[in-house]
Amino acid sequence: MNERFHRYKFKMNIDSSRKPEMVIFPNDENVLIYKMLDKNNQEIEATLFETEVFYERENKPDKVLYSQPVSENQFITNIDAELARYDVVLVVDTSYELISTTKIAFTSIMLYYWLLVDDGECEHQCSSNLIEWDATSINKPENFMYAFAIEFVRDHFQELNENPIIAVIIDSELGDIPSYNDRTKPIFNNYFLPEGYYIFYASDKGGYLQNKLLKKCDKKAKKALEQYKKNTPSHIV
């Protein structure tokens, strides 16, 4: 197994001469906190906004297993427990392929409710949908369906007059996710992430909860596409 590394990302407004150094220590409640200090031991204001786990690969970029936003500017010591703090987890994955002249797509949408953490184990209830659709005219099918799924779920909870905090797990757009969560960049066309929604990245590799949920969602979409191809006459494929 490759050695895993934990990376924390901060926002700081400083000039390059101050060269920040991070100091980590427990507070009175034994919770890990941090300070950014310059070479004169003067504190630098910094905000922790994202964390990720990755492993290094020879002659390739690092393989990121997951990336998630950080709430309350605190270190995350239990990955699964952090995800369980959200009221609902939405997982979206799309598989598509050009078949003849049509880009056939299958999108798996899964909602996980009431995540409960007990001795590191999470329990949940799940509802899922599988959508077959024509993505021929869509430039970025994955992003289109991220926006579609988020808006579908948002409408559902608005009808119930509820405003849950929702984690959205996806497996692409890793470099743009911070901008999506800051709502400075649209997910698709002019669609920005609504308030109360936070995007997580997860690979289908890794043993964390978000990896397991993404893998299950991904498998469902891929299986549907393969079944479609199997039932399609060979002269069309």
Question: What labels describe this entry?
Answer:
8-stranded mixed sheet; 237 residues; globular; 3-stranded antiparallel sheet; Nucleotidyltransferase, domain 5; single chain; 2 domains; alpha+beta
Description:
- The protein is an alpha+beta fold and 237 residues long.
- The protein is 22% helix and 41% strand.
- The chain is built from 4 helices and 11 strands, in the order ββββββαβββαβαβα.
- The strands form 2 sheets. It has an 8-stranded mixed beta sheet.
- The model has no long low-confidence stretch (mean pLDDT 88).
> Could you describe the largest sheet, including whether it forms a barrel?
8 strands, mixed
First-residue to last-residue Cα separation: 39 Å
Using the coordinates shown, work out and report the CATH topology of the largest domain: Nucleotidyltransferase, domain 5
What is the N-to-C order of secondary-structure elements (H for helix, E for strand)? Answer: EEEEEEHEEEHEHEH
Count the E strands.
11
Shape: globular
What class, by secondary structure content? alpha+beta
Order of neighbouring strands in the sheet with most strands? 1-5-6-11-10-7-8-9
Low-confidence residue ranges: none
CATH class bucket of the largest domain: Alpha Beta
In the CATH hierarchy, the architecture of the largest domain is 2-Layer Sandwich
What is the total domain count? 2
β content, as a range?
35-45%
Q: What percentage of residues falls in helices of 4 or more residues?
A: 10-25%
Q: Taking all residues together, what is the mean pLDDT?
A: 88
Radius of gyration: 20 Å
Count, helices: 4
